[in-house]
UniProtKB/TrEMBL annotation, chain A:
GO terms for molecular function: ATP binding; ATP hydrolysis activity. It comes from the Bacteria. This is ATP-binding cassette domain-containing protein. Residues 4-230 form the ABC transporter domain. Gene3D superfamilies: P-loop containing nucleotide triphosphate hydrolases. PANTHER family: SPERMIDINE/PUTRESCINE IMPORT ATP-BINDING PROTEIN POTA (PTHR42781), THIAMINE IMPORT ATP-BINDING PROTEIN THIQ (PTHR42781:SF1). It comes from Pseudooceanicola sediminis. Pfam families: ABC_tran. InterPro entries: AAA+_ATPase, ABC_SmlMolc_Importer, ABC_transporter-like_ATP-bd, ABC_transporter-like_CS, P-loop_NTPase. Keywords: ATP-binding, Cell inner membrane, Cell membrane, Membrane, Nucleotide-binding, Translocase, Transport.
Length: 230, 513
């Protein structure tokens, strides 16, 4: 279980409070108006941004002071999820060992991950030689080998067209189901949320509200969500 | 306040800054201690100070004044070879001083081209030694720099303004008054201050073309106190004087200079619609040709003389080449390592510390290290290590200005991704920083290697016949009037300096992304 215990995030005039829990294995869409603090919330959980007070807790263990790379978290950003100077296999290999000293077994895992996301045999290409959708798949392959129990997506597919984005979300949904990881996914689009999320976490007015069941939320949105959906 | 908990070696950066402060501060301290027991500056020292200020002022004025028409012509004319000409203005920075001076002698010297021609019509001979020779050489080196700085100012004027000027059919005078004069008022003081500061610390030029009571710079005075009198106390006093002078000028230059010095994008040819024709076009053409001839002529002269001298290569040439290569490569290596470490701090304060060597001249540092080593060991035995050290310190500010911003950009673009993957230490260096920084590292290493290759500074204090670099050998040959052999060395030196810069820059240039 991921817990945000009385977390209070402040930066200049900005303030965001969160006191909530996400059950292990849930798929949660984080939605709300732009500027509400969705990305900041994910950055805080990932360890890039330190909350002013409160605690981020995973399975009962506080994560404060743990470096981002040491947290049980893998994360995809809006852009820059692959190193352009390394080929795809190495980009994925970094998810296994930062030194890139890979055993035969590790290499096999990289190739399996490539197969799983539909990029079999493309490990030798550089990111620039792949299409936008293939780059997203490569980043997801790295998430697979990283094998961390909590996955944070900060709109990594925002630059893709609607059809491709839907395809990626389906792939993410499948991978999450196979591996049983807990997913937090920032989204602007309720359709995305409807597509793969079980729960919706609303971020608005300086608060991150506890996640609630998606179908119910969208069918009968609370006041704040209704304002956002318009 | 996005924090970066696992960024590579910020502490490494602070450590490098502390090391740098020590390497600069300890020799300065040694000079202070020595000067404390020494003598007050005498009349000849004050004369050296006056001469230093005079030549630096004249050099700055002439360099900038002559650069104005050249920069304007480059800014408003489009012609084949323009790109090459702009590139050429960067060349003097890595051209060995001793080679350039030799070339100037071949054109302007007693037996040079100009005097030979003048003698045909019964004029001359003009002598190059003394104040005007020193200023001439400084203009040769710094006029191109001034062209770069002023051209950057011209390129900085939005092309929409020139479009508007063309639309309003402004006369050239109007364009000057409304667009160019306001820019020049901002750019020219910076160019003057920078060149003034550079010329204050000039040593090799004064060593060859100056000298004597009426043409000795403070920097040269330090050398003479060593070599002629072995008066360490006086050398220390002069070194203090020089440090105060150069530090003040460097601070002034940093305050009034607006450009970043990189001069990137200068070869972009922005469209201009207002370029006047007629005699103004002719004047621009003539100005560009004259400037080109002034810059290329001396180098061609050295090359030609050098080719004919290859039959009479001096003994000691190969060891000198080997020494120069070793010093140059080691300096490049240490410069890049220290510059990378300083960049890793990603701190303005640390970057500022990295610029401090600009305030200390090579001979001042050399004096300091000599004072430290002298009681312990014969300083000459450490000639090459000390040269590497001083050359590293001297190249550091330039390398840092190339590397530090690039480092910050890489961390901004890929730092978070690297953090989520726990890339730190050597893994971050190998898989993120080195590949992404390849081009600036190549450029910085090339600069450091070329500067070190052509350096004729601290080696003159420490060097001896069996521990000499190529520039020192060349200088000695010139002193012995073995002009052709010196020219051959000059040709080799020039080829090595440009070649090593080119190799490093190319090596970094093929950035694979």
């Amino acid at each position: 279980m991921l817990e945000l215990r009385a977390v209070d995030i402040r930066q200049d005039d900005f303030r965001l409070r969160a006191d909530l829990a996400v059950a292990t294995g849930r798929k949660v869409a984080v939605i709300g108006p732009s500027g509400a603090g969705k990305s900041t919330l994910l950055s805080t959980i990932a360890g890039f941004f330190r909350q002013t007070s409160g605690q981020v807790v995973w399975q009962g263990r506080p994560l404060d002071g743990v470096a981002p790379g040491k947290r049980p978290i893998s994360m995809l950003f809006q852009d820059g999820n692959l190193f352009p100077h390394l080929d795809i296999a190495r980009n994925i290999g970094l998810g296994i060992a930062p030194s890139l000293r890979l055993s035969e077994q590790d290499r096999a895992r990289v190739e399996d991950a490539l197969q799983r996301v539909g990029l079999g045999g493309m490990g030798g290409r550089t990111p620039a030689a792949l299409s936008g959708g293939q780059q997203s798949r490569a980043a997801l392959a790295r998430i697979l080998v990283q094998n961390r129990p909590l996955l944070l997506l900060d709109e990594p597919f925002a630059a893709l067209g609607p059809a491709l984005r839907a395809e990626m979300l389906d792939l993410v949904s499948d991978l999450v189901d196979e591996t049983g990881v807990t997913l937090l996914m920032v989204s602007h689009d309720p359709a995305d949320a409807r597509r793969i999320a079980q729960d919706i976490m609303l971020v608005d007015d300086g608060h991150a509200y506890p996640p609630a069941e998606a179908g119910q939320m969208l069918a009968d949105p609370p006041e704040a969500l209704r304002r956002y959906l318009g | 306040m996005a924090q970066r908990p696992v960024a590579i070696g910020r502490s490494l950066g602070y450590l490098a800054a502390a090391l740098l402060l020590t390497l600069l501060g300890v020799p300065l301290l040694a000079i202070f201690l020595r000067a404390g027991g020494g003598v007050l500056p005498g009349p000849s020292d004050w004369a050296a100070l006056r001469f230093t200020l005079t030549q630096a002022s004249l050099s700055a004025l002439f360099s900038v004044f002559l650069a104005l028409p050249v920069a304007r012509a480059l800014a408003r004319r489009r012609f084949p070879g323009r790109r090459m000409m702009v590139a050429l203005t960067g060349a003097p920075f890595i051209l060995p001083v001793v080679v350039a001076v030799m070339g100037l002698l071949a054109i302007f010297g007693a037996h040079g081209l100009l005097n030979t021609l003048a003698a045909q019509v019964g004029l001359g001979p003009w002598r190059i030694y003394g104040l005007h020779g020193v200023v001439l050489a400084h203009v040769f080196f710094n006029m191109p720099l001034a062209v770069r700085m002023i051209l950057q100012g011209w390129q900085g004027i939005p092309s929409e303004r020139f479009r508007l000027a063309a639309q309003l059919d402004l006369s050239p005078g109007g364009v000057f008054r409304l667009l160019e004069w306001p820019m020049l008022r901002q750019v020219v003081p910076g160019a003057l201050a920078a060149i003034f500061a550079i010329c204050l610390a000039s040593f090799a030029v004064a060593l060859i073309l100056g000298g004597g009571p009426r043409a000795t710079t403070v920097e040269l005075g330090i050398y003479q106190a060593f070599m002629f009198d072995f008066d360490l106390g006086r050398a220390a006093v002069l070194a203090l004087m020089q440090t105060a002078l150069v530090a003040a000028a460097a601070i002034l230059a940093l305050l009034v200079t607006r450009m970043d010095g990189s001069g990137t994008g200068l070869d972009r040819a922005l469209p201009r619609w207002d370029s006047p024709g007629g005699w103004r076009r002719l004047a621009d053409v003539l100005g560009l040709i004259a400037a080109g001839a002034f810059l290329v002529g001396p180098l061609v002269a050295v090359a030609l003389a050098g080719l004919s001298g290859f039959g009479d290569l001096p003994p000691g040439l190969w060891p000198a080449i080997a020494n120069s290569l070793i010093v140059s490569l080691l300096s490049a290596l240490t410069t890049v390592i220290v510059a990378l470490a300083l960049s890793a701090a990603q701190s303005r304060v640390v970057q500022g510390i990295g610029l401090l060597p600009l305030a200390l001249s090579p001979l001042v540092l050399g004096t300091g290290y000599f004072l430290i080593l002298n009681p312990v060991i014969v300083p000459g035995r450490l000639a090459l290590p000390v040269t590497v050290l001083v050359n590293t310190l001297m190249a550091l500010p330039f390398s840092l200005r190339v590397l530090a911003p690039a480092y910050v950009r890489v961390e901004a673009d890929f730092g978070r991704l690297a953090d989520t993957l726990a890339l730190r230490g050597l893994a971050r260096l190998r898989w993120l920083l080195l590949p992404r920084l390849r081009a600036p590292i190549g450029f910085a290493a090339g600069l450091a290697a070329a500067l070190s290759m052509g350096d004729l500074g601290v080696i003159t204090l420490f060097g001896s016949a069996d521990r000499q670099t190529l520039p020192l050998l060349m200088f000695r040959l010139m002193g012995a009037y073995r002009t052709e052999a010196a020219a051959s060395c000059g040709l080799i030196l020039m080829a090595l300096s440009f070649g090593i810069f080119w190799l490093f820059d190319q090596g970094g240039g093929k950035s694979n992304a």
